[in-house]
Amino acid sequence: MFPRPRVAARTGALFVDRAGLRDLPRTVSGTADALRDGAVVGVFPEGTTWCGAAGGTFRRAAFQAAIDARVPVRPVAFVVRRPDGVPTSVGAFVGDQTLWDSLCRVLRTPVLTCEMTVLPDLDPTGADRRTLAASAAAAVGSVTGVAHHPAPAGRRRVPVAA
């Protein structure tokens, strides 16, 4: 188990321990249950922020929850801009930086605009989680201009004759 921020826990946040994925099936199931109950679930499929011209992998687990609950995925893209309109990474949460350090850096920046674009729903019917995650990543990338890497294929066991 890993530490969970108390404020986030009070909001009903579901946490994923990315270092030890033993609880992941339970988290996916809980997320699907929340979706079936009509909850709006916000997911950050990269698990972090990125600076630069390339983004991270959109993790597939949350997309499995949408498939299991038979609810659409609505990608949302965020772009933080300076007053001159140029995108900036000043709002990125980087590496081992604490939330407090990140927040202070943002608050020291004179003016920032956070632009949110709500993209069309993605229908999970007939999709697998890899395809749904790739579609969401492409939709977000079309707005941000940041390419996201496809999730690496999992290891597959291949029977071998002895």
Blueprint (SSEs and pairs):
Layout: H1 6-10, H2 24-36, E1 54-55, H3 61-69, E2 76-81, H4 99-108, E3 113-118, H5 129-144, E4 147-148
- Average pLDDT for all residues: 80
- Strand proportion: 5-15%
In percent, how helical is the residue content?
25-40%
Structural class of the secondary structure composition? alpha+beta
Distance between the termini: 40 Å
What is the C-alpha radius of gyration, as a whole number of Å? 18 Å
> What kind of sheet is the major sheet?
2 strands, parallel
Strand order of the largest sheet: 1-4
How do the SSEs run, as a string of H and E? HHEHEHEHE
Number of helices: 5
Number of strands: 4
**Low-confidence parts:** 155-162
Give the CA-based shape: globular
Describe the structure.
The chain has five helices and four strands; from the N terminus they run H-H-E-H-E-H-E-H-E. It is globular. The protein has 162 residues and is of the alpha+beta class. The C terminus is likely disordered. It is 33% helix and 10% strand. The strands form two sheets. Strands 1-4 form a two-stranded parallel sheet. A two-stranded antiparallel sheet has the order 2-3.
